[in-house]
UniProtKB/TrEMBL annotation:
Gene3D superfamilies for this protein: alpha/beta hydrolase (3.40.50.1820)
Organism taxonomic ancestry: Bacteria, Bacillati, Bacillota, Bacilli, Bacillales
Domain Thioesterase: 19-235
Family: Belongs to the thioesterase family.
Alphabetic keyword roster: Hydrolase
Pfam family, one: Thioesterase
Name recorded for this polypeptide: Alpha/beta fold hydrolase
One of the record's GO molecular function terms: hydrolase activity
Keyword Manganese (UniProt): no
Length: 257
């Protein structure tokens, strides 16, 4: 792995045929995606992006809102895109995958697919985005804790210090949902894929149809066993991701030939 400001390059390979851009869930970090990418082919170079305030970016201040988070990610993504690229985001990261891919007017030709995992649709998030001035105004620390518990995001026997950190990071990330905007984002025609957990109580079936309204090009959805964090509950998502990337590489080679 190689570490950069704001992201980790997993399996660095200057001759990689495809790049994978990953964006973590609320309360997560770049390392959240390690179980998903550790078995990918060596021809895939994975970029694990991370919001400030945790992990490798713990010494940085939290971003103030969703727009500031976009401004933080976009230049880094643009600098990394120089060949066929797949976007993958889980939960909050799914919204970043959608918004960033729709903001890359000069580099959209590189995008092969956008995978959105366990994320509510933009129209649903916009409906509840009341743009509070700062975190923990609309959502109290107790309500953030309850939301994390409901999603299964608090480890068993967690100590008070770690619990405080989890609530603080997640609450600041929830604030990005509360300040969500689609300014500068355009609907694009590259393929989209929606991943859902069969037992995810946070993302309901109706979100499939709402996501479909956001997509102009090819769209499909898939269910996996598990809850909101199904991507780490079995090997099925990692296996499908590997298969998807291999198929993309085959298609690229066939186009070249």
């Amino acid at each position: 792995m190689e570490q950069r400001e704001g992201y980790i390059i997993f399996n660095p390979n200057k001759k990689a045929k495809v790049k994978l851009m990953c964006f973590h869930h609320a309360g997560g970090s770049a390392l959240s995606f390690i179980p998903l990418v550790r078995t990918l082919p060596k021809d895939v170079e994975a970029y694990l992006f991370e919001l400030p305030g945790r992990g490798i970016s713990a010494n940085q201040k939290f971003v103030a809102n969703f727009s500031e988070a976009m401004a933080y990610f976009l230049p880094k993504v643009i600098d990394c895109m120089d060949r066929p690229t797949v976007f993958l985001g889980h939960s909050l990261g799914g919204l970043f995958s959608y918004a960033i891919s729709g903001s890359l007017s000069k580099k959209q030709n590189y995008i092969e697919k956008v995978i959105i995992s366990a994320a509510k649709s933009p129209q649903t998030v916009l409906e509840y985005a009341i743009h509070p001035e700062k975190p923990f105004i609309v959502r109290s620390r107790d309500s953030v804790k309850m939301d994390i518990e409901a999603l299964g995001g608090i480890p068993v026997d967690v100590d008070d210090s770690l619990l405080h950190s989890i609530i603080n990071i997640t609450g600041n990330d929830f604030h990005l949902l509360d300040t969500f905007t689609l300014d500068g984002v355009v609907k694009s025609s590259f393929p989209f894929e929606l991943w859902l957990g069969k037992y995810d109580t946070a993302v309901h079936e109706r979100e499939i149809y709402k996501w479909r309204e956001e997509i102009q090009g090819e769209f499909c959805y898939r269910y996996f066993n598990g809850g909101h964090f199904f991507i780490s509950e079995s090997t099925e998502p990692a296996d499908l991701l590997k298969k998807t990337l291999l198929n993309i590489m085959i298609n690229i080679e066939n186009k070249i030939v």
